[in-house]
Amino acid sequence: MASGTHIKALLQSHLEGDDERFCAVAMQLAAQEAKHGHGKLAQELRALVDDAKGRIDTISPVPISRPRGELATLLEAIYPKARLSDMVLNDALAEQIRRVIREQRHAERILEHGLSPRRKLLFMGPSGTGKTLTASVLAGELGLPLLQVRLDGLITKFMGETAAKLRLIFDATRRTRGVYFFDEFDAIGSQRGLANDVGEIRRVLNSFLQMIEQDRSYSLIVSATNHPSILDTALFRRFDDVLHYERPDEAQIIRLLKVRLGHRTEPHVSWKALAGVAAGLSFADITQAANEALKDAIIHEQPKLKKQDVAAMLSERKTIMERLRPGNLAEVD
To answer: Angle of helix 131-142 relative to helix 91-105, nearest 10 degrees?
Structure first.
């Protein structure tokens, strides 16, 4: 006989339109029936689930409503269309992301064997290297909503209030399957005991550690930081995987420039020379410089971009980023 827990889970996942969770619960129900000696019923249930999986588009969106009430101040929900093919990555990082996607697409099979797919992820690396885009790619590839946590709504000055809001977010991960993205995670994940630490932040970090460890939802929980050195070491073992992001090397810069500009440049452009100009810039900086070059060409009705046009925009972006470095900003002040 189906337990009350299974029946409630089936109804909840059906009402939320979460087909993957519905199938996972149904498979758990089949396993329970098999343990009770109801082999034929278990086999029939598995056959029905397999048939249902064949009809479900694996990248169809999970219907959700816009976050309401207090959640509306904590989460921003979108359905990204980004795909892994949109990114320029090194082989190791690309394989890590593909592995997460594979495990999520075969979550039911993994769960049947008492294992868990990767879904608690930590992204570390400099700004503009693809951390936020990866969160969008995971949501896009899996047909899930991207629910970005709004730190301005989460962190307050009132004792205990931030931890209570954090609980609302983790409760939402169970009700609505999605990719929950904590950007600038160091704001709540910094080391306990830092000189400028305050009691409230320590309590928030302790709450996060407890909640992420106890989380048994089907959602992906993704945290990203530009400052991994200040993260509390207790955090790292709570994540299923840690992905490291770096600034692009020469080969990646050339690939990115060709993707963005290859169809609009004059023949025989020296991509290697342009990569030299762009050295040290992030993926986001190079993309922005390429877009500026395209806009300038459109305005001046220039059919093809010249090497010097692109180089000028890359150099301009480099100058801007140099001026934005903390030491240089202090000098301006």
So the answer is: 30
C-beta atoms surrounding 95 within 10 Å: 11
Question: Residue 61: inside a domain, yes or no?
Answer: no
Q: How far is CA 83 from the centre of its chain?
A: 12
What are all long-range contacts of 202-206, with beta carbons under 8 Å and residues at least 24 apart? Answer: 203/159, 203/160, 203/162, 203/163, 204/155, 204/162, 204/163, 204/166, 205/232
Q: What is the pLDDT of residues 16-40, one digit of tens each?
A: 556 667 777 777 777 777 777 777 8
Whether 313 shows a pLDDT value over 60: the answer reads yes
> What distance lies between CA 318 and its chain's CA centroid?
27
Q: How many Å is the maximal CA-CA distance in the chain? A: 77
Element (H, E) at 59: none
**Helical (H) or strand (E) element with 44:** helix 39-55
> Where in the sequence is the domain holding 41, given as residue range(s)?
4-55
3-state SS assignment for residue 85: helix
Q: Where are the alpha helices (DSSP H) in 143-183?
A: 151-154, 161-175
**Mean pLDDT, rounded, for 11-15:** 68
Higher per-residue pLDDT: 52 or 298? 298
- Total structural domains within the chain: 3
102 Rama sector, left if φ>0, alpha if ψ -120 to 50, beta otherwise: alpha
Of 28, 55, 82, at which residue does a domain stop? 55
- Residue 64 in any domain: the answer is no
- Domain with residue 323: its CATH number is 1.10.8.60
Q: Please indicate, yes or no, whether residues 237 and 277 belong to a single structural domain of this protein.
A: no
Strand partners, 267: none
Residues 6+ apart with CB under 8 A from 134: 87, 97, 123, 222, 243
